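Chapter review: from sequence to fold.
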Amino acid sequence: MQTALTELIKLSRVGQEADSILRSCVHCGFCLATCPTYRLLGNELDSPRGRIYLIKQALEGNPISAETRTHLDRCLTCLNCETTCPSGVRYGRLLDIGREHVETRVRRGTWDGLMRMGLRTVLPYTHRFSLALKLARASQWLLPKAWTASIPPHQQSDPWPEARHNRRWLVLDGCVQPALAPNINLAAARLLDRLGISLIKTPGARCCGAVSYHLNAQQDGLDFARRCIDEWWPLLEQGMQGIIITASGCGAMVKEYGHLLRDDPAYAARAAKVSAASRDIAEVLAAEKLDTPRFTPGKKGKVAFHTPCTLAHALGVQGTVESILKKAGFELTTVPDSGQCCGSAGTYSILQGELSRKLRTERLSALESGNPQQIASANIGCINHLAAGTATPVRHWVELLEEASRQDADL
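The token string follows.
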């Protein structure tokens, strides 16, 4: 694709990156078939190809309207298009650049602006979010039904396993996950403890920065990234094997630290090493010997696995979870169109509620078509979003695996 970016933009590092990405797109249209919003809306401006055109126009100095921003806002950033693209267009990175550019030039309405500010002020801070969640649970009868469905019941969390093994990994606590589902990381710690690995919590590393970054407060997002790096770096230097992440959405952000902070002289080298040291929990467990008495093959029940977009497309981890669950004795149901997005996408389910719910309805129909006893996933956002739309239990797959391990150990 030919480009004619304005001189000011073209001379910047970000502008040069955008120019390179734009020029790699040949407008073949393969991405249209895999784009959730294009499939729902049928408008090419709500497809990757259309949004690339809008970003190109904006960076070339053409007028930018609220409609331009609306089409960019509607993108789930599922990155299905990147997996499909034969030219290797880094659409997700281009979208970040385009959104930041448009955000500074088109003012949002008062309600929209306040909503986004509220999300950035509460979600990344665990204590604030925990308090908000407690208030929401206490006043559910006052809230709209669409909101109360997304409020999970309180989970009682047990003590964390003592660090007793030579092999030690750090774990990202996360911002909303400790309040919504504290037993996910606990299940991972218990499971790894049985496999000879101690999981070390680092309370100073809470939010990975994804919430702020993808709400176009990109500098705030990078500040969260720097705080995580400051927390982890001394421990990595002391011999920790790496960083385990149980929420694939967070994992996708941490994997980008090296690129996003490449121009920060104080953090570039450490950010690259932190990204290289991070692993999704599935990658770590796949390297362990699970064919032991702890995982005696047998009927553990029928499970439908929903693959989060961040796990499949951003992290490139596909088929690993399914393989581990089958080895542990679970019967996995066939899920039609298994690569489709559930509509969660971080804060998307709040800001683009109608589109998000339509995608959830489609995904649940596919997931429940095999009559599973449980639905499993690998990202807290997907889990909470799917659970709000079904009576079928939705849990993190590591929780299922840990229970299976515990049951087999008692045999």
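Two observations follow directly from the output. Residues 292-409 form a domain with the Rossmann fold fold (CATH 3.40.50). The chain has a mean pLDDT of 92.
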